[in-house]
Design goal:
The protein is mainly alpha-helical. It has 15 helices and four strands.
C-alpha cells in the first residue's frame, strides 16, 4: 500500500480548521491586548531637537590661574564636546530647571473630551494610571522600590529624557528631549539651553580671580617701588650714575696715574743718582762736574754747570802761568766752590721735589685703586639690588597681565559670551516619537500569527487522534470498507423518528 509523505494544502487547512477556536482566541486576545496597550497603557511621548555649536573660546584656553605659559590651541578636541555634554546633563542644572518650571507640581486635570471613543480612552487611561500607582505602592510596601518625592521623580525623568550626541566630524551637538507633554517639551528644552549657557559660564569661571590677582599686583607694585627707591638711594649715596662707565673711567685714570708714577719714580731715581755723584765729587779736591750729568729742562742748574765748566777751564789755563796757590787760582776755586754749593742745594731741592712728586703719584694711584675696589664692592650690592628690582618688576608685570586676563574673562562671563552657541532652538513636535500605532499594531498581529503557528505545530505534534479515513487506513494499513458520518445526538433522534428510510439514509453503510 502506498504511503504518502507529502502534505497538501487541504491537510494544512484541515489542521488549521481543527484548531480554529484556539487560533481565533489567540488572534482576538492579541488584537485586544495590542489595542489596549497602544491606546490606554502606552503613553505617547514627544521628542524635540536643538543644536549647539562648540567653537573656540576662552573656555578652551588655559585659565588665568595657570601660572605657566598658556598652551596654544590649534584644533578642535573631542573632550570639549564631552565636557559640554556632561555640563548639559548636570544634576544641579536639572534641579534648577525643575524648580524654575515647577515640573514637580501636579498638572491640572484635563477636561473630559466630547467624543465617545476619546472619552473611553480618557477614562481608560485614568484607570491605568490608578492601577500603576497602586502597583507602585505595593512595590514600595514590600521594599522593592524607594519612595520618591515629586521633585525627585521630575529630576529623574528629566535626566532620563535628555540625550545628546556629537555629529560625526563636527563640533555640533544634537540635544534631544523626550517628554509626554507635547506643549511643554520644546519650552523645557529651550529653557534648559538658556540656563545651560549661563550655568556653563559659572562652571568655567574662577571665583575671586580678579580680587586675588588685583591684590597680588598691588603688593608686587609696592615691593617694586620700595626696591626702586632703595636702589636710587644706594646710587645716590654711592655716587653711582653709570657703573660700567665709571669703572672704565677709573681704570683709565689708574693707568694714567701709574704711568705718571713710573715717570716720577724715574725722575726721582735720576735726581738721587745725580745727588750721590755730586756728593762723591765734592769730597775730592778737584771735583769733576761732568759726572753729574744733564738736568734736562732745568735752566738754572744747566747755566751753573756751564759756569762751573768755564771756571774749571779757566783754572786749567791759570795753572799754565801760575802756581796752584796763586791768588787768581784760589779765587777761581772759591767761585767754583760757591757755584758748586748752589748746584748742590738746587740738586737737593730737586731730589726732595721728585720724592714728593713720586709720593703724590703713588698716593694718587692707591686712591684710584681704592676707589675702584670700593666701586667693585658696591657693584655687587648694586647688582643684587638691580636684580631684585628686575625680579619684582617681572612679578608685577606677570600679575598685572593675569589681572587683565581675569578681568576680561569676568567681563565675558557677565556678558554671557562663551564658546557655546545655540544654532537651532527647539520647536514643538508635530507627531509622537517612535513608531506609529498602526505599525506597532501590525507587528503585534504578526507576532500573534507566529504564536498561532507555534501553538498549532506543538498541538499537532502531541496530538495522536485520528480524524479522517485516510489517517485510519494509514494507521491500520488496511482498506476502509465503510464509514458512518458524525451526527449530533439531537439530529440523530430526529432522524429515527422520521422513519426507517431517513434513518437508513443517515446511518447507511457503504
Amino acid at each position: 500500500m502506498e504511503n504518502r509523505s507529502t502534505v497538501s494544502l487541504f491537510d494544512l487547512m484541515f489542521i488549521v480548521f481543527k484548531h480554529k477556536w484556539a487560533v481565533l482566541t489567540i488572534l482576538l486576545v492579541s488584537a485586544l491586548s495590542g489595542v489596549v496597550w497602544l491606546w490606554l497603557v502606552r503613553d505617547d511621548v514627544y521628542e524635540t531637537t536643538a543644536k549647539i555649536m562648540i567653537r573656540m573660546g576662552p573656555e578652551q584656553a588655559a585659565p588665568a590661574t595657570v601660572l605657566s605659559q598658556n598652551p596654544m590651541i590649534t584644533t578642535f578636541r573631542d573632550q570639549d564636546v564631552n565636557t559640554e555634554l556632561a555640563i548639559l546633563g548636570s544634576t544641579d542644572l536639572m534641579v534648577y530647571i525643575v524648580d524654575q518650571l515647577g515640573m514637580d507640581k501636579p498638572e491640572p486635570p484635563k477636561p473630559v473630551p466630547a467624543g465617545l471613543i476619546p472619552r473611553i480612552r480618557y477614562y481608560g487611561k485614568a484607570a491605568v494610571r490608578e492601577i500603576k500607582d497602586y502597583f507602585e505602592e505595593i512595590m514600595i510596601t514590600v521594599g522593592l522600590r524607594d519612595r520618591l518625592t515629586p521633585r525627585e521623580k521630575a529630576i529623574a525623568m528629566l535626566q532620563k529624557s535628555l540625550g545628546g550626541v556629537a555629529e560625526k566630524e563636527s563640533n555640533v551637538l544634537d540635544v534631544k528631549l523626550t517628554l509626554p507633554n507635547k506643549e511643554a517639551v520644546n519650552i523645557v528644552l529651550n529653557t534648559l539651553l538658556d540656563d545651560y549657557l549661563a550655568f556653563r559660564m559659572k562652571v568655567h569661571a574662577i571665583p575671586n580671580a580678579v580680587d586675588f590677582f588685583g591684590n597680588e599686583a598691588a603688593q608686587a607694585r609696592s615691593q617694586m617701588q620700595d626696591s626702586d627707591a632703595r636702589l636710587k638711594q644706594f646710587e645716590s649715596e654711592s655716587d653711582i650714575v653709570s657703573i660700567d662707565k665709571q669703572q672704565q673711567v677709573l681704570i683709565e685714570q689708574i693707568s694714567q696715574a701709574q704711568q705718571l708714577l713710573v715717570d716720577a719714580e724715574i725722575t726721582k731715581y735720576e735726581a738721587a743718582g745725580k745727588m750721590r755723584r755730586l756728593e762723591a765729587q765734592m769730597k775730592l779736591k778737584e771735583p769733576d762736574i761732568a759726572v753729574i750729568g744733564l738736568f734736562g729742562k732745568s735752566v738754572l742748574p744747566e747755566e751753573m754747570l756751564l759756569q762751573l765748566a768755564d771756571l774749571q777751564r779757566e783754572r786749567e789755563k791759570l795753572r799754565l802761568t801760575e802756581l796752584d796757590d796763586g791768588v787768581r787760582i784760589r779765587n777761581n776755586r772759591a767761585q767754583f766752590k760757591a757755584l758748586l754749593d748752589v748746584v748742590e742745594s738746587n740738586l737737593r731741592s730737586l731730589t726732595t721735589d721728585t720724592e714728593a712728586a713720586w709720593q703724590f703719584r703713588k698716593h694718587e694711584v692707591e686712591t684710584l685703586e681704592s676707589r675702584l675696589k670700593t666701586l667693585h664692592d658696591r657693584q655687587m650690592q648694586w647688582t643684587a639690588l638691580s636684580r631684585n628690582s628686575h625680579v619684582l618688576e617681572e612679578n608685577y608685570l606677570f600679575h598685572e597681565r593675569k589681572l587683565k586676563e581675569a578681568s576680561a574673562t569676568t567681563a565675558l562671563n557677565q556678558q554671557n559670551v562663551g564658546s557655546a552657541v545655540v544654532i537651532q532652538r527647539a520647536i514643538p513636535p508635530l507627531a509622537p516619537a517612535g513608531m506609529r500605532k498602526l505599525t506597532l499594531l501590525g507587528i503585534i498581529l504578526a507576532a500573534s500569527l507566529f504564536v498561532c503557528i507555534a501553538f498549532i505545530s506543538l498541538a499537532e505534534f502531541f496530538d495522536d487522534g485520528i480524524y479522517r479515513r485516510e489517517d485510519l487506513a494509514r494507521a491500520l494499513d488496511a482498506p476502509i470498507l465503510g464509514a458512518f458520518p458524525k451526527v449530533k445526538p439531537k439530529r440523530l433522534a430526529q432522524s429515527i423518528e422520521s422513519g426507517p428510510e431517513l434513518s437508513a439514509y443517515h446511518g447507511g453503510s457503504i
